[in-house]
Amino acid sequence: MTDLTLVARLLKVVEHDVVPLTRAGVEQGNKLFGAAILRREDRSLVVAATNAETANPLWHGEVHAIKLFHELPPAGRPDPGDCLFLATHEPCSLCLSALAWSGFADAAYLFSHADSADAFAIPHDIAILKAVYAVPDPDREAPAPGRDLYNRSSRFLSTADLAAAVAASQDPEAIATVARLRATYDALSATYQQSKGAAGIPLP
Ligand SMILES: [Zn+2]
């Protein structure tokens, strides 16, 4: 993603619309993953959401946002094709499929799968992609070690890495925002990790 104005807008939505929801969700034992849906045309916010696994293990931030989107009155709800999808963390296999099935073809994320596993101690995205999906095709050779775990660009869905875009831009303000958000999510992660397991989430 090379449109820095858009990157800055998406970071602002994370900071001001998603983080407050996530702060409250983490206090209740939910994970720190959040999401938002914006109109592509004017980049206005349609819905913001956070993980609500304590209510239902399928309410990942992204799926929860799609649920809330469909609870809006049809008249005020844009076509998914006219929307941008924003995830704080690179979508897992459940959420990648949810985005494809619900018609949100463009998704940007701030933190990568590797960040979720390493910085936030939630290794399930990579573990499930490897264990459930990255099986060797019996008619072909085994998958190459280190290969991508999903297609970041396909006819169903393209994902964009905001942190990589910011790093490449060398824009001081965007770099400072990402650093601030990283500190915010480190603090949210510490809160979640302290209470992890207490809320009965299947994969805490
Ligand atoms: Zn997910």
From TrEMBL:
Gene3D superfamilies: Cytidine Deaminase, domain 2. Residues 1-123 form the CMP/dCMP-type deaminase domain. Pfam families: dCMP_cyt_deam_1. One of its GO terms (molecular function) is catalytic activity. This is Nucleoside deaminase. It comes from Nocardioides zeae.
